[in-house]
Amino acid sequence: MIGIKNIIKKELTRVFTDRKMIISLFILPGVLIMVMYSIMGRLISNMEQDIKEHIPTVYIQNAPEDLADVINYVNFEGNITYMNSSDNTNAIRDGILAGDIDLLVVFDEGFKETIDNYKNVGDPIPEVKTFYNPSEDYSSAARSNFVASVLNTYQQMLLEQRLGNIEQLQVFYIDRQPESSVIVDEDRASGKYLSMLLPFLINIMLFQSAMGLGMDAITGEKERGTLASMLLSPIKRREIVFGKLTSLGILTGLSAIIYVISVVIGLKNLSQGAMGGMTSIKFTPVEIIQLLLILIILVYLYVSLVSLVAVYARTQKEAGTYVTPLYILVMLGSIMTMFNAGGDKGLQYFAIPVYNGTVAIQKLLLGELTMVQFGITVGSLAVVALVIISFIVKAFNDERVMFNA
To answer: Mean pLDDT for each 10-residue chunk of the chain (405 residues)?
Structure first.
């Protein structure tokens, strides 16, 4: 125990007495994450405001005489140019493609006469074509606004002229006041939003922290020769392993906590700027304990994986090459949950290392994690971590491995 304590003290002192390492591990990443998401939120908000304030350029061909009255009635704002049926629209379409013009609306010739002459089923029904560019935000917004405000209103007006009482077409209403029929758990709604991003980001950040710290603490010391002197000391090699893994777990956990807090703050800034805000997540005391235990087990699993690779690598560059496939696997296991938020999952999914940690965090954010699922997740992760640690201890006892023989 004394040897483990000394190793932990040595590793923590090495990090916390190095200002550059403190800044690079704990301060700079958190600040960059918050700044990045805040800037993204501001940019998205500015973009939405710019689209809202943009005055669209609209060309209308064969417009009925009473269309202008409808446009004025609904207060549609736009630079509108009316065209005759003889005018060529090729230049207008090229302008839409180039992004210089937002919308071209073409009414069939004799549009109003065709509507007035409709008597029986099978009689001609005129068409209104809207030409726009879906890859241009201004054009898409102009088309949506024109159809929703002008064309829909005009259609209702013509129906009322034809039938006299348009309510004859309305057999029943569906949610006349939609907001009054919405039943939603605000906490769960916020959790669902975070459950798509946060588990993925937590796993990536945990592994990145373990990767950066683990390779330097083991492979880096092998290169510098400091690990060889430690191995020749009276401290048992098993104590060296547990001391290094514990200190790496502490450092990785601290950096991960800072990253997660930074991500949550950044996502709040992003959601406030782009999606109208995000309510807070509330955890029960039991859920907080569950989350902490999952994170602790994940930290030790990732630290063990990186350390195992670092032990067998001769240089940090070689260790980085070996650990990259593991990083990809962790990313893959995390990404799989981003597009499958919620839904019932069998217990077997909670026994798959890496993936089960992401799923469990996702379920926690949704308030759906059961004690059985939690137990299987923590148990399977702990077993895998212990197996890996046993391989690390075995490697530390192998002179050829530790001295790069």
So the answer is: 81 83 78 77 80 93 92 93 91 94 94 89 91 94 95 91 75 66 60 69 81 83 82 83 87 78 69 51 78 86 90 86 88 76 71 88 83 93 92 86 69
Element (H, E) at 57: strand 57-61
Q: Which residues contact 118 (CB under 8 A, 6 or more apart)?
A: 124, 125, 162
pLDDT at 277: 46
Residues 6+ apart with CB under 8 A from 187: 279, 281, 282, 367
CB 58 within 8 A of CB 102: yes
Same domain assignment for residues 28 and 64: no
Range of the domain at 131: 54-181
315, 223 contact by CB (below 8 A): yes
Judgement on whether residues 313 and 292 belong to the same structural domain of the protein: yes
- Which of 154, 181, 208 is the last residue before a domain boundary? 181
Whether the CB-CB separation of 245 and 341 falls below 8 Å is answered with no
Contact 362, 341 (CB under 8 A): yes
pLDDT at residue 276, rounded to an integer = 47
Question: Same domain, yes or no, for 223 and 341?
Answer: yes
Tell me the HSE value of 402 on the side-chain side, using a 13 A CA sphere.
Answer: 18
Both 228 and 370 in one domain: the answer is yes
Residues 244 and 389 in one domain: yes
Residue 330 vs residues 95, 109, 258, 335, 392: alpha-carbon distances, Å = 47, 61, 20, 9, 20
Q: 132 and 18: one domain?
A: no
Number of structural domains the chain divides into: 2
Q: What are the structure tokens assigned to 352, written together?
A: 């798959």
Predicted confidence at residue 344, as pLDDT, reads 62
Give me the residue label for tokens 């067998």: 312
- Where does a domain end: 136, 155, 181? 181
Tell me: do 230 and 362 sit in the same domain: yes
Q: Greatest CA separation found in the chain?
A: 103
Enclosing H/E stretch for 297: helix 285-312
| Structure confidence at residue 132 (pLDDT) | 96
pLDDT at 341: 53
pTM for the structure as a whole: 0.67
- Residue with tokens 């549009």, as numbered in its chain: 111
Q: What is the CATH number of the domain that holds 95?
A: 3.40.190
Q: Same domain, yes or no, for 264 and 357? A: yes
What are the tokens at 399?
Answer: 């002179």
- Point out which residues pair with 105 in neighbouring strands: 60, 130
